[in-house]
Amino acid sequence: MTIVKDIDARGMHHCETTALGVLLRHEGLDLSEPMLFGLGSGLSFIYWDGKGMPFPFLGGRVKPFELTRNLAARLGLTLTVEETTSPRKAWENVAAAIDSGRPVGLQLDCYHLDYFRTKVHFGGHVVAMYGYDEHDVHLVDTDQQGGAVRTSRAGLATARAERGPMTARNRSFTISLPAHPVSWQDRIVPAIKDCAEAFLAAPIANLGHRGIEKAGKQVPRWLLRAAEPRQDLPQAALLMEKGGTGGALFRALYRDFLDECTRLIDDGNLRAGHRLYAEAAVLWTHVSTLIAKAGESGDAGCLEQAGVILHDLSRIERDAMQVLRRL
After folding, report:
1. pLDDT value at position 265?
2. Among 112, 144, 211, 271, which residue's beta carbon has the most beta carbons within 10 A?
């Protein structure tokens, strides 16, 4: 058995920030999960209802791995990424990192992981690997998936090689700090402003505050859109609250990030943005509750209420990002 020493195998709410936390703590940088999410400019929104999709998807963050790239660039980290179509090379890439005493991040499809409780395909899942033996690998996943867990090497190989939406070709990555690390506190304002700019200037109507407005128009029709409303709507609500989002479709994480920032930076716009995202987080949880209730009861009125709240959320988040852009 080969195990990386001194691993802090702490599971958190969200998969990518959990993996980043493991890798960075091993390098000597220990940041809270909200700070990792915020410094990576992770907040976003997408209303996705593509051809062939059984049901629409509400996403609350930037696309998989973009958060990691953002964080590495902002903090001057060395991010080494490997991708390959060869199963043999894919294993060699991760084993080499572990053998050298360094944990490695993996992007994969969680469907094939032995310990995963809910079997759904999601190709943007990220875990940290810190050990292996002949049969199994040692991973760190989110707290709700068990934190420090094990899965078979065969299952891991299948998960890493899966093709489909949001998947990567056996992607693995390591992170190292520069000899003279930058002050992460000095990178807070640029991270917030970049996130706000991207949110406000989203190029299509499915993204950002315009995407939330679109969701407000589409969600009231979900009982008709769903093939199995009693299953599809509660599942959508569950993903919004419990699917590694930290609650309220990542708005709770961003609220907590802004709260942490207000303790470091004295700025009225920052405090205003925090207040607005605290309001938004409560409303997003209300939306998910109404969506679940509509699926369970068949009451279209719940979806009408959710649509009204989503219209309000579009305005609230637009206003929040406008004040945060002025930092």
Report:
1. 98
2. 211
| Residue 207, SS3 per DSSP | strand
Question: Which tokens is 22 given?
Answer: 């493991």
| End-to-end CA gap in the chain | 50
Integer angstrom CA distances of residue 101 from 17, 78, 98, 131: 21, 17, 5, 9
Count Cβ atoms below 10 Å from residue 51 Cβ, excluding itself: 4
* 3-state class (DSSP) for residue 15: helix
In the three-class reduction of DSSP (H, G, I as helix; E, B as strand; rest coil), residue 78 is classed as: strand
More confident site: 152 or 164 = 152
Type of residue numbered 233? L
Q: Is the pTM of this model over 0.90?
A: yes
For residue range 97-116, what is the model confidence (pLDDT) as tens digits? 999 999 999 999 999 999 99
Give every CB contact of residue 59 below 8 A, 6+ residues apart in sequence: 44, 45, 46, 48
